DNA sequence: TCGAGGATGACGAATAGA
DNA sequence: TCTATTCGTCATCCTCGA
């Protein structure tokens, strides 16, 4: 692999070497808007907001579809028909795409599809039953070269399309290479509420079952290579770029659900606990070795979420770990990765593992009836001053220990908001720098640079626990003695980068994708303060990382050694009372961009080898 | 005085485990 | 059945600078 030649010992490095310029030029050509700051490059989707070294060729409205992979001709046509209405234009573009991909299967004129429907008794019966159903699922189009990713949009059966919902579903299944008969059977078996991914799941499962049936004649077995993609995953994963926005997530039955949270939650092992006796670790052959990937999200997600994540990430078993075994705060997270698990080592010095070790000044004021030794999960919001005042008034009425009822109330609030004792009868939320310390970040990592206190809590609450992640990533140190090229998705405040740096793994090239400008500034500032000698390239939107863009980045670096990231948990987190919609939620559906990008990286790199 | 941005506080349910 | 926990959201209020 072509690593960045910049030596760690060379202090006189020239950031404008031909290599650096080549990288910058390459990225320039694939981004809609760029700024450069020495070795730091920013690729932004906001083409109108800032100057660009590349002429902005089309309006932002058009550009959003260009990024998705549609041609400007088709976009123009769609706009002409629908005006500048994003949903209608996207709907039209998807219809164009579907029709273009299989012109012989256009339902209105197709001699193949329609006869098939009408001649299939079972489907006809089904079709009559659900004729009035409105198709409210997102759909997507697939192309081997272009990634089309209408995340968060609905594919409605409106005037812009002449196809019924059922016909569209069948057409998409046909475009994906599934026989019409199987598509119609799946639609019947899965029911009228079934989404396209569910139908694909059903077909894949049926094909796999038939392929592995020893009693079935070979000539009627489906070809496995048509079912599995290059990496052992189901073919449909490539198609699962966008997701429907369903009002009610599909319930996973007890039979379907396979993932259980381990107890104790120590994954494949932690430094401070005995190694679990039965560690089952199966990696599909195609996932072994680089590029390594590391995906993170909340462990306590709605039922079935981790089953879905596992299904889309090569059926690898996730590793659930509570950061309480690494620090003084709990953080129950699932990590799904293809890293080796032997010879891990922790970061030194080992972080404090109790509240009193982490916050020694609090010990003096800590009442004996508050038996906490660990903090709960650090979240994005903190307790209010009003609440701490209420607690003070409740406790100071009593010279001695307050009655049990008061103790119970105070403890409930302290646990809920992670309040700590900072004076006689006085509790307070953690300061941002204390949160930084508990999560393994350097002091003042998020301080200054224009970020508000509220946003610091938010960014920290959304980040990795560095010691936990570093323990998992530690196996990379021996594998990449010359440094590593990292694609960091949903980087946040750079937890992955900080972990690698603290492990002593040199960061040669880091492509970091992060929506929040404040977070990008934090990572850039950390990059500069730690005198990183590699290249940091920032993107502000995962959807900018098209296959074409990834091809160019990989061509420049020689490939990514690591794809790391935790997609948004907003719609998975238990604290969300408003929109806990699962992986189909507005933000959390970006998980499928992680899958798409990882698939693309693996695919491109397999061709480069 | 006004607007922008930060701070505050009210808002349960899903899930696991005892 | 009960208890404990949870990388959150959003309307409103407050602060500050022009």
From TrEMBL:
Cell location: Nucleus
Domain UBA per the UniProt entry, residue ranges: 55-96
Main location per the UniProt record: nucleus
EC number assigned by the record: 2.1.1.37
The name this protein goes by in its record: DNA (cytosine-5-)-methyltransferase
Annotated region described as Disordered, given as residue ranges: 101-122
Keywords associated with the record: DNA-binding, Methyltransferase, Nucleus, Repeat, S-adenosyl-L-methionine, Transferase
Top EC group: transferase
Statement: the UniProt record of this protein carries the keyword Lipid biosynthesis: no
Cross-referenced InterPro entries: C5-Methyltransferase, C5_MeTfrase, SAM-dependent_MTases_sf, SAM_MeTfrase_DRM, UBA
GO biological process: methylation
Pfam family, one: DNA_methylase
Signal sequence residues: none
Domain SAM-dependent MTase DRM-type residue range list: 279-608
Bias kind Polar residues: ranges: 105-122
A single cellular component GO annotation: nucleus
